[in-house]
């Protein structure tokens, strides 16, 4: 397979964007990415979006967005893997260029979540409709079960969960594209409304609108055209059962372990060589579990690691320098691509106040549902 | 790019399948395809589905179906391009193997359309929500405008449209997987309920449940393992505006012309070398327009060609030997893959009563909406 690189990125500030529709958000992010890459050709468009059908009654986003960008008649496809839709869009763009079929590809993610009164129903479509949703459980409940068991098995403390949110909000204050740019305290998290015991409101990522894009090209093309490439040295995906009750164990996410394992093998690096990671902290417990399942910490020690500051900007392995889903916001289809935007900025030294010193290798992990799908990419400075 | 082949296929009989859910339909079709290919490995799953969110409130189909097939933790992704979702799934499977990333891939399409009272709303999400659907137009209305203008510009007759349905129903009687397996007459079409003038009920493809799958591998792997490969010699996709009013011309579909042009160039063959075609006859007028836009007939002569029998099983270019969307049924996400199933059966001499003599090269064309996206594959006997 040919070598593939990210050569530009663009995103809009996530938030409750009442004045922007799905298509206007996407076009804004895409034009920024195209400008940033400085390209005058796009051979194909891959768009990650989870559930525009349920949220805004609009499918067929590939063609729609290619047209609104003035890019028709290029091939344009929408990809979906619940909240990992952005990650799979990045993966398909990677394979398209890797195969030699395309030279320059636009990968985007978008979700318009505030124009509906059915957000919880829409998100629940990522869980097993027949065996989970029908019985009334939604995602806060599913992740609460994971949190409760993690606390019982490993002694993870309620405060450890809160510290994930506190850290990510702190990082968010340094990210001009973050939905929330204010610090919060452990006391505020512990005093916020109970959503699904033990998870409280400030343990949950918000409902956001947003769009994010990156431009990919073959490494060869990037070099020949004087671009600033960051090489994608691994792209891996793995799946698991949708329904939590079908798994042998729920304090570890099999798809995360497997996608991480495959990505490390493909890149030829281990967790110790990763300089920072953007991971899928849809709930605070998710960041703790994922940080263990990707091998940054031993199983059960993710909570302790947060407590000891190992995942802060100057820690052993900075996690979610962007603010993560918790503070940057979580427009679901956009999230996986926004992680790639953050990694590109970090690896090209453009992350301003939140810049991680000497960052050369970054890992991004995006997942769907309660970990039924997980996509890991590893990126390296050329 | 590596050479890629289809090595097995399977589908269920399309219809109003009250006793089968989305997942059971898909598993049944997938197991048939895996059995047919005789493989004991699947490296990745690509599923085409248009709008399972709106129809059955279930997204995240890649992981769900991989799990129900016992294939987790393989990578599994759902692709969407409205009614061309099956075609884009095939294309992504092709690129995955072509890149060298995977060796054996399962490509499937599925749609469960009869478990909702919102089929028309759901399908309308393939049109432009803000500029078409909001104003009340649905797909029969959009294609009716195309039909009316085609009749005015080119003298296409109302009876020509009817003859497309009559031909495809005749073909359907020879296909054990077709939703409708009975012949109809021109008089019956002309006497059926008016849906959107000039289109009547029997000009419209039905609302069907169904699933279809093919197994792909690299040609090299297929040969080394004694499979029966049919080579994919072209995969091309093109897009256009979602909204009909934004196009300069509506009696020709730009995405079909462009995807056909690119496919012929990639395969190194022209329309005269195609032995049969499966095209997207969501409405009778669509088959006529597409047969012109793919170069089988001059612009405006598609109606005459049907009248003269050129598109029948023993005509110059047999079109929709399977019965097409009109008679075989149109579970939207499954349609593009079902076309590949038909092509594989025809090119391996297994199409029974509807077998086209000496078929060596087949073309399949799948489109979304009123032609905002079109995917063309060309297949050849090895």
From TrEMBL, chains A, B:
<dbReference type="InterPro" id="IPR055140">
    <property type="entry name" value="Thiolase_C_2"/>
</dbReference>
<dbReference type="InterPro" id="IPR002155">
    <property type="entry name" value="Thiolase"/>
</dbReference>
<dbReference type="InterPro" id="IPR016039">
    <property type="entry name" value="Thiolase-like"/>
</dbReference>
<feature type="domain" description="Thiolase C-terminal">
    <location>
        <begin position="237"/>
        <end position="380"/>
    </location>
</feature>
<dbReference type="GO" id="GO:0016747">
    <property type="term" value="F:acyltransferase activity, transferring groups other than amino-acyl groups"/>
</dbReference>
<dbReference type="Pfam" id="PF22691">
    <property type="entry name" value="Thiolase_C_1"/>
</dbReference>
<dbReference type="Pfam" id="PF00108">
    <property type="entry name" value="Thiolase_N"/>
</dbReference>
<dbReference type="InterPro" id="IPR020616">
    <property type="entry name" value="Thiolase_N"/>
</dbReference>
<protein>
    <submittedName>
        <fullName>Thiolase domain-containing protein</fullName>
    </submittedName>
</protein>
<feature type="domain" description="Thiolase N-terminal">
    <location>
        <begin position="4"/>
        <end position="218"/>
    </location>
</feature>
């Amino acid at each position: 397979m040919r070598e593939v690189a990210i050569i530009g990125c663009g995103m809009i500030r996530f938030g409750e964007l009442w004045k922007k529709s799905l298509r206007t958000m996407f076009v804004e992010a895409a034009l920024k990415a195209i400008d940033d890459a400085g390209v005058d050709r796009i051979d194909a468009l891959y768009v990650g979006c989870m559930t525009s059908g349920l949220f805004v009654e609009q499918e067929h986003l590939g063609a729609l967005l290619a047209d609104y960008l003035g890019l028709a008649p290029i091939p344009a496809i929408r990809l979906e893997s619940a909240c990992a839709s952005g990650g799979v869009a990045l993966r398909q763009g990677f394979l398209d260029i890797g195969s030699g079929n395309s030279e320059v590809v636009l990968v985007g993610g978008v979700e318009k979540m505030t124009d509906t009164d059915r957000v919880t129903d829409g998100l629940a479509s990522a869980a097993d409709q027949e065996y989970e949703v029908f019985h009334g459980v939604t995602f806060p409940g599913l992740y609460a079960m994971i949190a409760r068991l993690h606390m019982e098995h490993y002694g993870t403390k309620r405060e450890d969960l809160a510290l994930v949110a506190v850290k990510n909000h702190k990082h968010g204050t340094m990210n001009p594209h973050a939905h929330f740019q204010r610090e919060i305290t452990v006391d505020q998290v512990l005093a916020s409304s109970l959503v699904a015991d033990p998870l409280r409101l400030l343990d949950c990522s918000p409902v956001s609108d947003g769009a994010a894009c990156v431009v990919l090209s073959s490494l060869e093309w990037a070099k020949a055209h004087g671009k600033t490439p960051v090489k994608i040295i691994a792209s891996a995906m793995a799946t698991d059962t949708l329904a939590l009750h079908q798994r042998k164990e729920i304090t570890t996410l099999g798809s995360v372990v497997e996608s991480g394992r495959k990505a490390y093998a493909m890149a030829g690096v281990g967790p110790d060589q990763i300089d920072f990671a953007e991971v899928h902290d849809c709930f605070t417990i998710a960041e703790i579990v994922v940080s263990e399942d990707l091998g940054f910490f031993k199983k059960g020690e993710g909570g302790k690691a947060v407590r000891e500051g190992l995942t802060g900007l100057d820690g052993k392995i900075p996690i979610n320098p962007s603010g993560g889903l918790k503070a940057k916001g979580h427009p679901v289809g956009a999230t996986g691509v926004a992680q790639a935007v953050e990694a590109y900025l970090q690896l090209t030294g453009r992350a301003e106040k939140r810049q991680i010193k000497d960052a050369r290798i970054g890992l991004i992990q995006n997942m769907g549902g309660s970990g039924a799908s997980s996509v890991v990419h590893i990126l390296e400075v050329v």
